[in-house]
Amino acid sequence: MGKKLNFIVLSVLVLFALFGASDYSFEGAEQIDKGDTAWMLVASAFVLLMTPGLAFFYGGMVNKKNVISTMLQSFVALGVVSILWVTVGFSLCFGESMGGIIGNPLSYLNFNGVGLAPNPDFSENIPFLLFALFQLKFAIITPALITGSFAERIRFRAYIFYILLFTLFIYAPLAHMTWHPDGLFRNWGVLDFAGGTVVHMSAGFAALAGALYLGKRKNTAHDPANIPYIILGTGLLWFGWFGFNAGSSLGANADAVAAFANTNLASAAGMMAWIFYDRFQNRKMSALGACIGAIVGLVAITPAAGFVTMGQSIFIGFAAALTSNFAIRYKNRKELDDTLDVFPSHGIGGIVGMLLTAVFARDVGLIYGETSTFLYHLLALVITGVFTFFGAWLLYYIVDKSIPMRVTVDQEIRGLDSSQHGEKAS
Asked: pTM above 0.85?
């Protein structure tokens, strides 16, 4: 049943895109700004690179017999989400607003109406198609982030089905509410420059639900397969994050420069805070710790990147790293098997970043005497957490009843590289 279901769903999506996708329309293309368009093409490529970077980051952390499977779970999102995005995903995120919650699936079905001319509702300077492709990269990496929580124990074809459902029913509403001009959160004044809520908090809470739903691995010992892979993945993610954050300015402008600088400083602060706090606690200054600290700093600055000063970005990275470090140590004393610490890193890091955005945001933050932004951020935090956690749990249940999500004990012991893919790392 599971094999047939996956084949049918993916075949329908591919055929739908093949025969329904619109041709490029050049009408109005002369209105684009060449400088902004050039930067956004580069930024989109940067963000795309983050998913392979994540594959190396996660792949280096797991047991040697699960490296290929873990890396492929990131890579396959590039294919699955790209096709889904063209057919209906983009329309659900950025189509005509239906109550501020979700977009009309018919607005840009099969990218109809997504041409080379700018759409002033989203950007007046770059092709609407480029805006759609830039947003696609965010949709790709979000479900890939979740995989770290259930690494080493999930059936691959069940995972593919899950990311389809997650993108449609969790990611799309959050993206619409946060980034669409008529979205609920956006109209409240909730600030998310590049995806702290949409990407990191949603992935974090979905990861928490996944770790709880699937339960613990048979062997929970943490023995990273390849530390250099982790360092390489961190470097690729840090590099790609400049497109993630600075690209969210949607142009080659001052906001992009500010976001670029803040991104680098927050990551640096996160790294330094993590390793020196570890040393303060009489732990080694490890490469793994340095990499996780850098990533947490990047996560936390994401919602604030275009709204805060350089000094504030350093504080955000520092505060998020310490909070996530404590959260990981606390989790390790409990029964929760979030394999690669997705919730303590991305969930907690995203929460810290979201709240500190409301504290420091230029002109509307708490330090400027404004309280409404902070209160709406708190409300959006609660809604996002509850919606994503319970929504993700329901999707795990639905998928599990269609295709058993957890591998058998024998498959888990043999390793997912062998049992799921018939391959092995060197």
From this structure: yes
Phi and psi at residue 199, to the nearest 5°: -95, -60
- Identify whether the C-beta of residue 300 lies closer than 8 Å to the C-beta of residue 316: yes
C-alpha separations of 30 from 33, 252, 282, 283 in Å: 8, 18, 61, 59
Query: Is the residue at 1 inside a domain?
Result: no
| 331-357 tens-digit pLDDT | 988 889 999 999 999 999 999 999 999
- Is residue 254 within 8 A of residue 293, CB to CB? The reply is no
Judged on CB neighbours under 10 Å (0-12, 13-18, 19+), 418 is: middle
The tens digit of pLDDT for each residue in 403-424 reads: 999 999 999 999 999 999 999 8
CA atoms of 153 and 409, how far apart (whole Å): 9
The answer to whether position 2 is within a domain reads: no
Is the residue at 423 inside a domain? no
3-state SS record for 119-174: ECCCECCCCHHHHHHHHHHHHHHHHHHHHHHCCCCECHHHHHHHHHHHHHHHHHHH
* Domain encompassing residue 405: 10-23+32-418
Q: How many CB atoms lie within 10 A of CB 262?
A: 28
Q: What is the pLDDT at residue 221?
A: 79
CATH number of domain containing 233: 1.10.3430.10
pLDDT of residue 424: 87
Looking at residue 21, its pLDDT comes to 62
